[in-house]
Amino acid sequence: MGLLLHLSLVVLLAAAYPGGRSALRRRAAPAQGSGDSSPAPSETKALFWVRISPNFMAEPPGSSVWLNCSSSCPLPEGFSLRTGLQRGQNISGPSWVSFQLLDVRAWSSNVHCFVTCAGVTRGATARINTYKRPHSVILEPPVLEGSNYTLRCHVTHVFPVAFLVVSLRSGGRVIYSESLERFKGPNLANVTLTYEFPARPRDFWQPVRCHARLSLDGLVVSSRSAPVMIDFAWSSVSKPLASTSIAALVVIFLVVGAAYLRKYLLMQSQA
Ligand SMILES: *[C@@H]1O[C@H](CO)[C@@H](O)[C@H](O)[C@H]1NC(C)=O
Ligand SMILES: *[C@@H]1O[C@H](CO)[C@@H](O)[C@H](O)[C@H]1NC(C)=O
Ligand SMILES: *[C@@H]1O[C@H](CO)[C@@H](O)[C@H](O)[C@H]1NC(C)=O
Ligand SMILES: *[C@@H]1O[C@H](CO)[C@@H](O)[C@H](O)[C@H]1NC(C)=O
């Protein structure tokens, strides 16, 4: 019995972590009941399944959730839950137990449910992730430094940072994008992205926005900043152009003035 339990745990863990670190990515397309155990060929007596539903959730930190653990076993001897999360109430039926978990804050937790049927124990695993939509996404007005514009975007109170992608877009075009996978911190965080933007004439007068996107296995949470304009007038390229146009304007005034003056002088001489 002890050995069997151990074996089913190994199978369960292997099923839950098919590729070690890549397990999270693989679950991007969660197969129906991916955490289910499958009966070993030598244990035909123990042909029953255990399912936990839903097997993936993404909730704001502090949420309470319900998970339903069910089994095809006609007479289950017992259901048990293994989790580091705080337990709440439960409701049960003949072949299922619905468990409440309180105040979920860890960014990712696995919850295992075990069912014993005819002396054989099997399990299924669910994952609960937590996320927090950014409190704000603010793009500072661009600052011209040398030939580049410095774009600085602040994303505040966001979680988990490892699932965040921050991008800068001019018009519809992505000018820069950064994935923050390497930041595994367990807390809400502020993120500041700074990018030196070598703006070209096509970028002038285009609205630039900063986008913050959290992707949690199918759930996508997007926020964006208010637009800022790359101000043509402050660009080093625009200075000669601007003075050219002022010169042109002055020339036009002068030409018009001279034309009026000639006309006036002509009228004067004819009078
Ligand atoms: C739990 O799942 C079982 C089997 O799918 C279903 O019959 C039952 O109604 C569910 N219980 C709750 C509380 O959702
Ligand atoms: C359901 O809750 C009761 C009371 O909190 C507890 O004694 C019982 O063990 C729970 N059932 C399961 C299957 O965990
Ligand atoms: C994040 O930014 C907010 C608002 O700018 C500030 O109040 C807060 O203290 C910052 N938090 C951290 C962890 O830096
Ligand atoms: C301008 O930005 C580009 C791209 O970010 C960078 O390669 C280049 O070194 C920057 N030039 C200056 C003068 O900062």
From TrEMBL:
From its record, what is one biological process in GO terms?
cell-cell adhesion
The stretch of residues making up the signal peptide is: 1-16
Residue ranges crossing the lipid bilayer per the database entry: 241-261
- Main location class: membrane
- Key word Disulfide bond present: yes
User: Which GO CC terms are listed, alphabetically?
Assistant: plasma membrane
Localization, per the record, is: Membrane
Which keywords does the record carry?
A: Cell adhesion, Disulfide bond, Glycoprotein, Immunoglobulin domain, Membrane, Repeat, Signal, Transmembrane, Transmembrane helix
Where does the Intercellular adhesion molecule N-terminal domain start and stop, copy by copy?
Answer: 48-135
Output the Gene Ontology terms for molecular function.
Answer: integrin binding
Read off the InterPro entries from this record.
Answer: ICAM_N, ICAM_VCAM, ICAM_VCAM_N, Ig-like_dom_sf, Ig-like_fold
Its record classes its membrane topology as: Single-pass type I membrane protein
Q: Which family does it belong to?
A: Belongs to the immunoglobulin superfamily. ICAM family.
From the Swiss-Prot or TrEMBL record, give the protein name.
Intercellular adhesion molecule 4
Q: What species is this protein from? A: Pteropus vampyrus
Encoding gene, per UniProt annotation: ICAM4
